[in-house]
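User: I'm putting together a teaching handout on how sequence relates to shape, and I'd like one worked example. Could you take O-fucosyltransferase family protein from Sesamum alatum, show the sequence you're using, and then write out its predicted structure as tokens right after it?

Assistant: Happy to. First the sequence, then the structure tokens directly below it.
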Amino acid sequence: MGKQGSPKSPRPGSLSLDASSGLKEYQLRWNEMLQNGDPSLGRRVSGGEYNWDKPIFVKGFKNDSVKYNASKGGSAGKKHLWWLLRHLRSIIFTFMLMGFLLLLDSLIFSLFDPTFLENSPNPSKAYDAKGRNAAYDDQEKSPVLYSRLLHMASLSLAEKDPEEDVSKFWKEQFPQASTWKPCADKNAKRAGTVNNHTGFVLVSANGGLNQQRVAVCNAVAVASLLNATLVIPKFLYSNVWKDPSQFSDIYQEETFMNTLKDDINIIKELPSHLRSLDLEAIGSLVTDADLAKEATPDEYIKNILPILLRNGIVHFLGFGNRLGFDPLPSDLQKLRCKCNFHALKFVPKIQKTGSLLVKRIRKHDSARSMLDKQLLGNFISSIPSGEQATIASPSKYLALHLRFEVDMVAYSMCDFGGGENETRELQAYREEHFPLLLERLKKMKPLSPAELRKMGRCPLTPEEAALVLAGLRFSRRTYIYLAGSQIYGGKSRMRPIISLYPNIVTKEDLLSPTELAPFKNFSSQLAALDFIACAASDVFAMTDSGSQLSSLVSGFRTYYGGGNAPTLRPSKKRLAAILQENSTIKWPSFENRVRKMVEEGQRVHIRGFGRSIYRQPRCKECMCKHQ
């Protein structure tokens, strides 16, 4: 090998290790050529006659580069230019290859980066919030509170075999707590009540579908307690729900009356001679302000029965949670159960569409359990001829009730990482919809958002729900039915959960506009479809144990599930404590603590008497107690 700067051309394959000064000289020449604008450097390289079988001249290029020396004048410059033109294709190819490898590396990293969500492809029918909650949809940025945990969750899900779902929560962890004998006997009679008539009970129930369902069953129990005749309850129109539906639009009236005919008298309309009475003037109108929340039977006997005996009629207006669970005679508890689980059947229109919804989720036509039969009635095998599932999906699915609507978010007074825009939006919503809440807060010492979260008073965000599911080791391919109304924040809020679980669908995804048309502008009837899909699911995951839908669905699954209908109840308080360690906690530790938290919610409790097994908060969910 010659000295550096030798006029001799280097031999192919030779390589000088002492190349620092020659490389500097070459770089100077290269920069000079770029500055002079050599047109050959800007020429687009085409395929031409390039032979891919030839060796790449990276080695020769490096060899020659160390041999050039500017001191050799024009001859060396010509050789340099000749060599550059000869190897131009190799140089460009080398840079292109390096650029491709860098791009590929960035792409692979992005696939496991939870912040890379906006450009990631979604399934054809994945959750799309278009048209939903547009006023509160922040398109600029997705608020992410736990980016580190999301990244670890993404890596953990990617490492698992996508064909194998290792989560043990597809099965009921405590089946003995879900296989109890039903406390309501649909053929049982409550002796001594039907023939004793003290007057008529009217109920005008407020709220949405689930609040009204609770009110109806409470009305049945109260009418029985007072030995009164119950008029089919009316449903109040709400400015929040904006649904004019009445009892007969949602439930089968004849089934309701026939199922309870041996327990109480039920009529469809008030007798004509009583319709013209001014109930408020005669003192027969009872509002929620006149009756304590979760009132006891003694309060009804003391305060309501005298009105009924004096006027022959009493009208409960609102009737939201106005009958407690303790203490209540066992026969009234069982009657309330009988109403909830046997007497209230959805009308055929809802059952038929609910059946279609469940079949499209499961992609088969046969009923799977007693749950299907109770929910869908005669429609468990009905599906239009030739109908195909809208989405290719596995037969089992998880239903998630994500209680993160704007009213829930605003009422909580919590901070969800949306910055000043979020603060202004939620405050404006409170001023319009919750003025009494703001007045009450003025008289109290306010709690900080951090304190509220620590106390478990903040609804779980889609991001937090996704972390719980990942912590329970549900695979990335888990098929999730999302129940609930419009998610606050729309698509931007949903991005974290979709990044981990892309197979998320709603009834709007699975049913066509034509199939949904009969339910348009009837929010309670749409909620009935969610009720059916959640109750029939293989696993039901709630995010707020105080939700009426979650409580009623959980009770229905316990009552008819036969120990094979698990419900996941994360504790918001315990989860907040876990998430507080976001910056330090290891993923295995996170998984372990989340699993223990959910198992605690499924723990079996033994009552001190009767050796009966029950699980809190079943008494509220099932609207009955074990005796």
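A couple of points you could highlight for students: The chain has a mean pLDDT of 77. The radius of gyration is 35 Å.
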